[in-house]
Design brief:
Layout: E1 9-12, H1 18-29, E2 33-38, H2 41-54, E3 59-63, H3 69-83, E4 88-91, H4 106-134, E5 137-142, H5 155-175, E6 180-187, H6 193-206, H7 210-219, H8 229-239, E7 251-254
Parallel strand pairs: 1-2, 1-4, 2-3, 4-5, 5-6, 6-7
Helix pairs in contact: 1-2, 1-8, 3-4, 4-5, 6-7
């Protein structure tokens, strides 16, 4: 299926590994010119090299801490200088600290707000004026299953991801008349570094091995397996495409059926 986004300019945040990297790869495979960012120079270069093999001369990689407003502005400026106006924006970040409510400090809450919520706000504010002027745009916020199914150990993430779903709905209403479509993707248990880190934290608290924890978690997924990053990337590429031209305001579960909520 031709998704109709060849040569579109796409920015994908925190794309040096994991879900961001999978999204960037899926968009590059559709012919997009892709700009990625990340904090780890070595991982960022590895991701750039992988994408460059798919799309020579159509990849830009910039060091960036998505919790820092000045870093996001510099990345956006570098992207528009290299490729022109941004058509597609995928917001993403690593998850905030995993801890129960009383274990968390005010500083951790503040850092979580900057990295998880404000990066999506700031990047959207940078990209939206151009999208509205050209009357074409796609914004996808990568959030988490905890937006619909909060988890005690993911206190900050649960609160902020739910807020991102509300923001997604509001943005879709405001910018739909400009043909700017805004959606969120809610990944379930996907085998990434973050998933393994959370597994280590939870297995220690439960007094079992990481392998035992991963097996128990997998058994609780209706699909009976963990998701693969590319399965998230493919959904994101579709939402960014011409084929999804009537999808906006959705918080789409990609979770193997693990979310039990009907809302």
């Amino acid at each position: 299926m031709d998704l109709g986004i060849g040569q579109r300019v796409a920015m994908v945040a925190a794309a040096s590994k994991g879900l961001g990297r999978a999204a960037a790869r899926a968009l590059a495979m559709e012919g997009c010119r892709v700009s990625i960012c990340g904090r780890d120079p070595e991982a960022l270069e590895a991701a750039r090299a992988e994408l460059a093999a798919l799309a020579p001369d159509a990849v830009l990689a910039c060091p960036c801490d998505v919790s820092r407003e000045e870093d996001l502005a510099a990345w956006f400026q570098a992207t528009t200088t290299a490729f022109g106006g941004v058509d597609i924006l995928v917001t993403n970040t690593g998850g905030p600290p995993a801890a129960t409510f009383l274990e968390l400090t005010e500083e951790q809450w503040a850092a979580g707000i900057q990295s998880t919520l404000m990066n999506a706000v700031r990047l959207s504010r940078l990209a939206l004026p151009g999208m509205r002027a050209r009357r074409w745009g796609r914004i996808v916020h990568i959030t988490s299953l905890v937006a619909k199914q909060p988890q005690p150990l993911l206190t900050i993430s649960s609160a902020l991801r739910a807020g991102l779903s509300a923001m997604t709905r509001n943005m879709a209403t405001e910018f739909g008349p400009d043909n700017v479509l805004v959606n969120a993707v809610l990944p379930g248990h996907i085998l990434t570094d973050r998933q393994l880190h959370l597994g280590e934290v939870r297995s220690r608290k439960s007094g079992i091995s990481l392998e035992q924890y991963l097996e128990q978690t997998q058994a609780g997924i209706p699909a009976r397996r963990y998701g693969r990053p590319e399965e998230i990337g493919d959904v994101i590429a579709f939402l960014c495409s011409e084929r999804a031209s009537y999808v906006t305001g959705a918080s789409l579960q990609v979770d193997g059926g693990v979310i039990s909520s009907t809302f």
